[in-house]
Give the backbone structure.
Amino acid sequence: MPKQNRKGQAKAKEEDGDLGTRFAAHWTAAENANKPLPITGIEAARAERRKNYATIAKDYYNLATDNLEMGWGPSFHFCPFPDPTESIDAAMTRHQHFLAYIMGLRPGMKGLDAGCGTGGPSREIARFAGVNVTGLSINGLHVQRATRYAREESLFGDGPGQVQYQEGDFMHIPFPDNHFDFVYATEATVYAPSLQAVYTEIARVLKPGGVFGVYEWLMTDEFDPKNPKHVEIRQRIERGDGVVNMLSVKEGLEAFRGSGLEMYHNENMALRVPPKRDPNQKDKTWWYCIDGDTSHTTNWTDWWLVFRLKKGFFRFGYGFTWLMSKARLGPELALEALRTQGMSVWGMRDGGREGIFTTSYLMVGRKPEGWVHPGPKEE
């Protein structure tokens, strides 16, 4: 191998290792080792991370995006399965369509996807509703890929049924007041250090009468902040997903109303499960697919996706990646990405099992005429 190529590969491996190390540095040694922190100490660590939310979100998605696209697809969110015959892809699409429906989107409207990822929901909603969507992401890699995919699907542009993308922080949206007909977020604003602050910023860029809809990650009313098991599950979700400030449903509702938006619908969509034909039948829950439960799958694509998340298979993959990394035949980045993904998957699964966590708490509201900025709110 030419010396120049060897140097290039060594530099790439060093940069990969630096990325994994950078992301892990945002968390304590105990959190990185998947060990619970004392309840008395965890809030101090969370408060410190809120100051660095933007860097943490960028580092997380630089680390996780390849795995998410390869293992999950173009839409980085979950969904309920009210129809037991639906495939995962069909259920995800329906979930996006329902958001467009309940927000009342109509052809020709212009809106913002706050935290757009690599653009899966924005492209689908633009096609479905005939609207123009601008996707905003704090991560430059997401903007590059979303733009490329939109061009490949002949959807890139500023007309009806088209999309465009811009790098930016939804805590400081780079658009003027009263600019959009609608704004939505699909499991993205959980990365904000303050839900009320991000909802208020979204309200600022909405036109009077404009609508905001969000699928939010929240801890349900069953979550007990004094229960060590519950706190440990939340800790794993935050560490595994780069989240700095997961709130409760009560706090989420307060944040939405505190932004000055007038809510007209709220619902925990995760509770929508299909009716049972047999009393012994297991529910097809939003988290079945990360539980390795292949019994609910409806096609071989879904079967393979779910099977890969069985704990035994996942551990085998992690062990193989560890051996390749130690033998210097694979990037160290892949090892940290898998470790982070494992914390995410098992944390969310356990949160679903315990009924203390939802990925799809839906809140929808309008910006009233005469809306007044409520001012800053620290959480």
